[in-house]
Amino acid sequence: xxxxxxxxxxxxHAWAAVLSLTLGVFATVTAEFLPVxxxxxxxTSFNITExxxxxxxxxPGILAAMAAPGIMLVTxxxxxxxxxxxxxxxxxxxxxxxxxxxxxxxxxxSRAMVGLCLGAxxxxxxxxxxxxxxxxKAHKATAAVFAGVTAAMILGVPFGTFxxxxxxxxxxxxxxxxxxxxxxxxxxxxxxxxxxxxxxKLSIIADYLKLQTVRKSKALIxxxxxxxxxxxxxxxxxxxxTGISSDAVTWILVGYGIAGFASNFVASAFISxxxxxxxxxxxxxxxxxxxxxxxMTSWPVAITLMVMVWGLAWGAMPLCMxxxxxxxxxxxxxxxxxxxxxTIQVAIAAGSAAGGKLIDxxxxxxxxxxAAACVLVSALILLAYRPQNKGAKAxxx
Length: 397
Known about the structure:
Shape: globular
Largest sheet: none
Number of helices: 14
Oligomer: single chain
Strand content: under 5%
CATH class: Mainly Alpha
CATH superfamily: MFS general substrate transporter like domains
């Protein structure tokens, strides 16, 4: 790799830059999902319902969905290093506002700030990661950055509940701010200049979305993420209904994260050769977990074990979806990165909002059962999908 002035950059420097993006993505996604583990405490602090507190997930999801393609359109040919540094600073500021927030309205403003930096940083980091290394290692750099996304999806909520248990929910935001500060410092030191390539236009995104494989991939991703966050956002209240204490909820979510992290590594050994089979297996496990959890509120041990099953299923899910999306999007890297992030964030916002409405009106069981039905539909889409040929246009097996 060479810098903008064509001077060589060492392999160590290049991978340090990749690691700075991985840590940045981990910080942004952790900040997004942090409220899931502290939702009851925040609701109590501001005297609101848990469904209303779920807006802490909905608001950043909406803003992130707009920011993902928006950053590609608005920044044009702006050096991507400058863009990434600004977004990391915005994330750090959002954590400070959240920790100080005197009202729920101010807390939602901080969540909007998270959404803006989240979608834009995720999309930009995935798009430029491959440029930080040699071409033959570009896919490893992209995978390393996405590992930050996966780790945050699995460990972000347990991290939030654990730190909140030690320092209150405001302390959880301060802890996330420290991670954000470390990521910003690493980026300042390690990121080289990253001049923008060809400016992305709406017409490029439109052409990308015309691909049949892309539309099916996005529908699948939307259903899975929407169902997951319609239920996962309200997991802590469900566990507390079972009579499990707040401290025990923290450790259950830590166990969930450990199960998911282990599942991610196990699944990686099978996905490249058996993507559809692996994907189907984890969808079935997710559907069973969502359908069974509301029936187990009288058995703390049983519901704890089912949460671990959920963790196993979700741990492999982001990796499955990322590879599925890549195989459906060959040749459209920036558009693929932007619209993958857009789809996920729209699904998170829609899922958490719908879940909150269902729970406030019909109760927790209804929300979980409808989410399970959505996962079933996604599994049927996956199994019904048969590419017409192998290669750039189809390539999903």
